[in-house]
């Protein structure tokens, strides 16, 4: 079993290595590449989009127009409160740029250039969005052009009011109505949807965090491709989160947020105490049971093996260690201070080739008579009353908000971020109340972009295929370069397995005929995981790098209210649990 997987991995390695060399040789001519790119560009002509129905749009920016951008987007010059002067400034760098790779001709995006700096930028909406009878749709694109080690790319929909009047002062405490978008640190991948809810009873505002979806969101941070994030919040208090137009998370504003929008109607009575005589023991020792007559509690657990005999050749009168007669008293030895000098002990050479030296003692064996302390068997407790619970009383803080959709009016939108990776590209942001408008906007931007990227990837293969058709001799080369080494490796590996290994294999195969857990499941799973998960190592390195950056942790404390940490633990596979833990604690 093992042999085959090993062989397979080896041969795949050789094949992939060889074929990438092959492709490199093939691609090198730069003007060829440029020609292909030009051809693809003309196949995907890009024109800065205009919304289908401007009356349904609250903001729509494609970031292609530098003048418009400079007029509408305001970089924050705020200072964070409560931290030292040099890291308090919002001095992150924003710019309009074409994407580093695979861009549409003429398309630009908003790029967060700097890392490890507070960066905030915001724009006023064309008109405020009031939560009424129409859905809220927020959509934008993110490309982590340099990947993401630790940091966010989420958007904040700023609450209308005095605190957001001056966008130059936009900072982490500026009140927002909704925060939405990707965020990552180490292995903690998130897609936030947080809304701030006003307690109708006393006006206190509280963050409500959306439940975690089942699916993991990892690729968007690592694949360097544009990804589309869409949030839909409906007047019927349902929501939907889409990634690349596929539903990623959905549910109800009532049921899927922590803490819940509406507090429980009843709570435990804090003044209720467990009565003294409340018996919570489900089982008790049988009071009627008596210790059997022949139960000897004093019998030792182990006894001397009476049947053992001294092994042949044992030298009972030889000491195991003897003084080293060759040793000399050190010249600086002072008997008055150091005491009488004695030569060090060494192993008795007379004992090296015999079964043992010194007094022989028979070994101990388990005592068949051993019973240990007698305990009465357990029976059902006749007085068992179940687990005690305090009685419920009406919750004094109870309220019922029947329409949490009616959130605080939004009048601006912005990014307020801290990132450990630079060059995050944002593009094609739109806030609308019409899904058609959002879809059309994406069709002219994101969809076109991804189509072009697929086409480009395809055309490299196509070129290879065309060339091969025109030069059939290429097949001989493929066979020589790919098939022969792979076949020899397979042959060598598997022929090498001697009969003992084969026996083990059959043994394992037999064991695997049952679905039940067997000890070698772990081994096989480990092998499989190593094959499947080439990213595992860099991930760990990332985490170590992350641990060396304590400053950003402070920054992220504001999200420490959520309980993802626990969930993270649950997802640890058995293998990870056994391995020595490299991970350092992320939050104190
Ligand atoms: C408002 O009520 C909530 C409980 O529902 C409580 O936690 C909060 O402290 C209250 N705020 C004020 C200002 O009384």
Automatic annotation (TrEMBL):
<dbReference type="Pfam" id="PF00262">
    <property type="entry name" value="Calreticulin"/>
</dbReference>
<comment type="similarity">
    <text>Belongs to the calreticulin family.</text>
</comment>
<feature type="region of interest" description="Disordered">
    <location>
        <begin position="258"/>
        <end position="295"/>
    </location>
</feature>
<keyword id="KW-0256">Endoplasmic reticulum</keyword>
<dbReference type="InterPro" id="IPR018124">
    <property type="entry name" value="Calret/calnex_CS"/>
</dbReference>
<feature type="compositionally biased region" description="Acidic residues">
    <location>
        <begin position="562"/>
        <end position="571"/>
    </location>
</feature>
<protein>
    <submittedName>
        <fullName>Calnexin isoform X1</fullName>
    </submittedName>
</protein>
<feature type="compositionally biased region" description="Acidic residues">
    <location>
        <begin position="518"/>
        <end position="555"/>
    </location>
</feature>
<keyword id="KW-1133">Transmembrane helix</keyword>
<feature type="region of interest" description="Disordered">
    <location>
        <begin position="503"/>
        <end position="588"/>
    </location>
</feature>
<keyword id="KW-0732">Signal</keyword>
<keyword id="KW-0812">Transmembrane</keyword>
<feature type="compositionally biased region" description="Basic and acidic residues">
    <location>
        <begin position="503"/>
        <end position="515"/>
    </location>
</feature>
<feature type="signal peptide">
    <location>
        <begin position="1"/>
        <end position="20"/>
    </location>
</feature>
<dbReference type="InterPro" id="IPR009033">
    <property type="entry name" value="Calreticulin/calnexin_P_dom_sf"/>
</dbReference>
<keyword id="KW-0143">Chaperone</keyword>
<feature type="transmembrane region" description="Helical">
    <location>
        <begin position="473"/>
        <end position="493"/>
    </location>
</feature>
<keyword id="KW-0472">Membrane</keyword>
<dbReference type="InterPro" id="IPR013320">
    <property type="entry name" value="ConA-like_dom_sf"/>
</dbReference>
<feature type="compositionally biased region" description="Basic and acidic residues">
    <location>
        <begin position="270"/>
        <end position="293"/>
    </location>
</feature>
<dbReference type="InterPro" id="IPR001580">
    <property type="entry name" value="Calret/calnex"/>
</dbReference>
């Amino acid at each position: 079993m093992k042999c085959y997987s090993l062989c397979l991995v080896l041969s795949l390695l050789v094949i992939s290595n060889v074929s990438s060399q092959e492709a490199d040789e093939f691609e090198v001519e730069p003007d060829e590449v440029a020609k292909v790119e030009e051809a693809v560009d003309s196949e995907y002509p890009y024109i800065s989009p205009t919304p289908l129905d401007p009356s349904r749009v609250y903001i729509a920016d494609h970031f292609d127009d530098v003048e418009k951008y400079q007029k509408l987007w305001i970089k924050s010059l705020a200072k964070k409160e409560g931290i030292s002067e040099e890291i308090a400034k919002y001095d992150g760098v924003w710019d309009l740029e074409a994407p580093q790779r695979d861009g549409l001709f003429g398309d630009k995006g908003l790029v967060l250039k700097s890392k490890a700096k507070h960066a905030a930028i915001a724009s006023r909406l064309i008109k405020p969005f009031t939560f009424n009878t129409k859905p809220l749709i927020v959509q934008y694109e993110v490309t982590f052009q340099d990947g993401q080690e630790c940091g966010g790319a989420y958007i904040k929909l700023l609450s209308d009011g005095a605190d957001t009047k001056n966008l130059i002062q936009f900072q982490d405490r500026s009140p927002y109505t909704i925060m939405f978008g990707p965020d990552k640190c180490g292995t903690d991948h998130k897609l936030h949807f947080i809304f701030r809810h006003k307690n109708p009873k006393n006006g206190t505002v509280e963050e409500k965090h959306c439940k975690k979806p089942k699916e993991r969101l990892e690729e968007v941070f690592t694949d360097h491709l544009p990804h589309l994030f869409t949030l839909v919040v409906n007047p019927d208090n349902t929501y939907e989160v889409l990634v690349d137009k596929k539903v990623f998370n959905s549910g109800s504003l009532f049921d899927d947020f922590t803490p819940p929008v509406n507090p429980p109607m009843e709570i435990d009575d804090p003044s209720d105490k467990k009565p003294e005589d409340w018996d919570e023991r489900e089982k008790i020792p049988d009071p009627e049971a008596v210790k059997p007559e022949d139960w000897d509690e004093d019998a030792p657990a182990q006894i001397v093996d009476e049947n053992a005999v001294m092994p042949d050749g044992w030298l009972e009168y030889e000491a195991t260690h003897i003084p080293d007669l060759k040793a000399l008293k050190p010249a600086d030895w002072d008997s008055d201070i150091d005491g009488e000098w004695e030569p060090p002990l060494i192993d008795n050479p007379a004992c090296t080739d015999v079964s043992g030296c010194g007094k022989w003692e028979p070994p101990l064996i388990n005592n068949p008579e051993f019973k240990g302390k007698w305990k009465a068997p357990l029976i059902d407790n006749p007085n068992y009353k179940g687990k005690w619970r305090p009685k419920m009383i009406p919750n004094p803080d109870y309220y019922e908000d029947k329409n949490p959709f009616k959130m605080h009016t939004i009048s601006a939108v912005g990014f307020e971020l801290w990132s450990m990776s630079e060059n995050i590209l944002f593009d094609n942001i739109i806030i609308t109340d019409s899904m058609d408008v959002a879809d059309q906007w994406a069709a002219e931007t994101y969809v076109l972009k991804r189509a072009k990227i697929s086409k480009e990837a395809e055309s490299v293969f196509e070129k290879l295929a065309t060339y091969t058709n025109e030069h059939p001799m290429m097949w001989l080369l493929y066979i020589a370069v790919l098939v022969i080494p792979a076949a020899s490796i397979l042959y060598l590996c598997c022929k090498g397995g001697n009969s003992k290994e084969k026996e083990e294999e059959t043994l394992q195969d037999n064991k695997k005929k049952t679905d039940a857990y067997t000890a070698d499941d772990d081994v096989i799973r480990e092998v499989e995981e190593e094959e499947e998960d080439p990213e595992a190592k860099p991930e760990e390195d990332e985490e170590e790098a992350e641990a060396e950056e304590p400053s950003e942790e402070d920054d992220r404390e504001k999200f420490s209210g959520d309980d993802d940490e626990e969930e993270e633990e649950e997802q640890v596979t058995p293998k990870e649990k056994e391995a020595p833990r490299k991970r350092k604690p992320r939050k104190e």
